[in-house]
Design a protein that fits this description.
By secondary structure, the protein is an alpha+beta fold. Helix content is about 30%, strand content about 25%. The protein is elongated, with a radius of gyration of 19 Å.
């Protein structure tokens, strides 16, 4: 919507912070976003408020402190769900990469991927190298960290 100035010329409406964040998210390839990626758009409190609003509106899901995932409406329930192709484990790995945390697959995952085991690893887990204390979770599933 445009307003009009005193000369009758259209004045473009300024974009809100949520619109700016939404546009940046739409341009990015990944499914995970960190709060600090939007620091240049506004103050920390403003960005957090905008991200919380986007979670409330079903555009994002919160995965952990400062970590958000792209959301899409569920075809069954219509409720927002994580849009990452590989599910929560893929989103958690993207988050670890963006946070600069070194990680590798667990022994169970490696054995399954190499055909050494027929047991499908159910619980999302990664082996973390170094220090990492954040909790990443989605709905009732939490990322297990092995040292």
């Amino acid at each position: 919507m445009s307003g009009f100035c005193s000369r009758g010329l259209a004045v473009p409406r300024r974009r809100t912070l949520r619109e700016k964040i939404g546009e940046r998210i739409a341009r990015q390839r990944g499914d995970v976003f960190l709060t600090r990626e939007f620091r240049d758009l506004g103050g920390e409190d403003q960005v957090l408020r905008a991200l919380r609003g986007m979670v409330r509106d079903g555009q994002l899901v919160r995965l952990g402190y400062g970590v958000y995932g792209r959301a899409e409406a569920s075809q069954l329930s219509g409720k927002p769900m994580l849009a990452a192709r590989g599910g929560f484990i893929d989103a958690a790995r993207q988050a670890l990469n963006k946070l600069g945390v070194e990680w590798e697959q667990t022994e169970f995952q490696r054995a399954y991927n190499e055909g050494g085991s027929t047991q499908v690893p159910i619980n999302p887990a990664v082996r973390v190298k170094g220090r990492f204390a954040r909790r990443l979770s989605y709905q009732d599933t939490e990322l297990r960290l092995e040292r």
